UniProtKB/TrEMBL annotation:
This is Dihydroxyacetone kinase, C-terminal domain. Signal peptide: none annotated. The keyword Kinase applies. Residues 4-202 form the DhaL domain.
Length: 206
């Protein structure tokens, strides 16, 4: 991954989140406070501004700016959580940013989210999309598949992970206050995580 690809990733993520803003908000309205689409849309707009103001010189720098901006600019649980994901990735990603390096940085990022949010698989959070995506990337590296196939498998795993949150009962975040009434809805953060992976696959495909 080079700097241009990393910048394109977050431009595409901003586009997809903006496109799906109302859908994400509706998901959050069902089991949370209805601000997830707005939170992320605003956060990624700020990310675009920050990256334009001080153009990063590497994928790692890009990720650090993305993470810091999300932590500063997004109120709500998802800001610090996504912020930690991308900041930890930025701290870990060496150069050259090969697929193996990217997969391992992504894994470290997901661990940082787990540490901050204390959520595990099955708690109906973004973790349920991020962990399958991370596993898919690691398997792709192990099997030596190409970059495009790797990110497409990660995007698919994240989407399946997001769909798998529908029958779950939330054990973390606002949705957990609903108890059994959280069952039957997709977790908004898992859905936005799937969008981040879809954005990555889309820019690699270009
Ligand atoms: P808020 O709930 O503060 O309004 P958002 O609506 O932006 O924040 O984000 C909600 C999403 O954040 C949830 O759908 C879930 O995926 C994620 N989330 C909330 N708490 C946690 C946690 N402790 N660990 C991991 N993810 C979490
Ligand atoms: Mg919310
Ligand atoms: Mg909120």
């Amino acid at each position: 991954m080079d700097t241009a690809l990393c910048l394109a990733w977050f431009e595409e993520a901003a586009r997809l989140v903006h496109r799906d803003r109302d859908r994400l908000t509706a998901l959050d309205a069902a089991i949370g406070d209805g601000d997830h689409g707005a939170n992320l849309d605003r956060g990624l707009t700020e990310v675009g501004k920050a990256l334009a103001e001080s153009p990063p010189g590497s994928p790692a720098e890009t990720l650090l700016t993305v993470g810091t901006t999300l932590i500063r600019r997004v109120g709500g649980a998802s800001g610090p959580l996504y912020g930690s994901l991308f900041r930890q990735m930025g701290r870990t990603l060496g150069s050259p940013a090969t697929l193996a390096a990217f997969a391992s940085a992504f894994d470290e990022g997901v661990v940082a989210v787990e540490r901050l949010g204390k959520a595990a698989l099955g708690d109906k959070t973004m973790i349920d999309a991020l962990v399958p995506a991370s596993r898919a990337l690691s398997l792709a590296v192990r099997d030596g598949v190409g970059v495009l196939q790797a990110v497409e498998q990660a995007a698919r795993a994240a989407q399946e992970g997001a769909e798998a949150t529908i029958p779950m009962q939330a054990r973390k975040g606002r949705a957990s206050y609903l108890g059994e009434r959280s069952i039957g809805h997709m977790d908004p953060g898992a859905s936005s995580s799937a969008l981040f992976m879809e954005a990555l696959a889309a820019v690699v495909r270009r």
